[in-house]
Amino acid sequence: MSFADQLGFTFKAPDRRVWAVRDLVAAARTHLEREYSDIWVEGEISNFRAHDSGHLYFTLKDRESQIRAVMFRSQARLLRFRPENGMQIVLRGRVTVYEDRGELQLSAEYLEPKGAGALQVAFEQLKAKLEAEGLFDSARKKPIPALPRCIGIVTSPQGAAIRDIVNILRRRHHSASVLIFPAQVQGEAAAAEVTAGLKYFNRAKNVDVIIVARGGGSAEDLAAFNHEGLARAISASQIPIISAVGHETDFTIIDFVADLRAPTPSAAAELVIRSRQEIEEQAEGLRQRLARAVRYRLVIAKQTLMEAAQHGAFGRMMNGINQRQQKLDDLGFRLENAERRLMEQHRRRWERASAAVRHYDARRVLAGVRKDLASQTGNLSAVMRNVLVIQKSRLERLQHQLKALSPVAILERGYALVFDGGGNLVKSTAQVKSGDEISARLAQGTITARVEKKNP
């Protein structure tokens, strides 16, 4: 009896299970994903890499440890900022295993910058990018026309911003025309609709200046105006653009790209067109300045003229002018007399011609012309009759000659034309042989015969 049996214990060797590597990794993955399916992890990004496929790969670390992380394209495209190395973030996702290498990693579904919010980080990143490209340079900003004939406004037609703008424009200058392009100013589609409005006005070229307006709101409400595509559309606009988004303390990306920033939509209406009273006051000021300048110039010119009149050269100049004026008067008098004589000559010539016409008998002249015409017509008819008789006689003579020379006329005298079997005219007995068929063309009809005998 064994010692174990004496003590009443029974020992059994444990069953040994041998795992395949992939099976073990898969089992660990399943366990980890079930136990840590929704976790929040805080750490610093390092080894960040954005793949062409749209997936994001990075390492999340702290002072003691690190773990690989991946964020697939479907979640990455929803990020409002771009992750960077050294950025402190909070990650939400699940723990999983990359089976090909058996490495533990995090599959991220959401990232949020630690401290500053995602919207603020995205704002700062886009601002730095566009500023580096020169989109904020004052040199590229277009001047706002002082008196635009038509103002384009891209905003929501139901918002308070458009009512404020229209009321102020009507009060400041009632003749200003306004075109409104309705667009959402909040939400996912807002940036695309505002961009469409800018492109429409640039394509139609029916306004002189464009206002992009929206009332105040939270950072999330104004996020559409921090869109990179909208900022580039404003930069590419050929028409000056005024941004009027939010309150005076609110800043968006388009405020830096636009040609002019208005603190509020109401301020945009005051900046875009000067009031009628201001224009009238400026015009009156310019009129007074011009009148003073003209009076001053007249005084200076009068003083200069008086000084010149006292000079001897001025007297000699005036004598020369008077002499030339007298000569001009003399030439004008002579020209007037010559004109009267010429008119008199033309009048007399016209009277002589009128008298000659009155004594001219047109009916007698027409009768003579009619008689000459009848005589010439009769002579022409006689000549044509003689020509026709002569031509007819010549034609009959030629017909008789042609008939006498015709082969048919020869046949009428009893001759015949003989043809062989091929239709060739037989001129010699050598062309046929005994037994050949021949045909003879007579004056009236044709006969067919066979050659029985031939004599040379």
Question: What does it look like?
Answer:
By secondary structure, the protein is of the alpha/beta class. The protein has 13 helices and 13 strands. Helix 5 links the parallel strand 6 and strand 7. The longest helix has 47 residues.
CATH class of one domain: Alpha Beta
In the CATH hierarchy, what is the architecture of one domain at level 2?
3-Layer(aba) Sandwich
CATH superfamily of one domain: Lumazine/riboflavin synthase
Indicate the low-confidence ranges by residue numbers: none
Oligomer state of the chains in this structure: single chain
- The total count of helices amounts to 13
Radius of gyration: 58 Å
The rough form would be described as flat
- What is the tally of beta strands? 13
Give a summary of the structure in a few sentences.
The protein is α/β, with parallel strands linked by helices and 456 residues long.
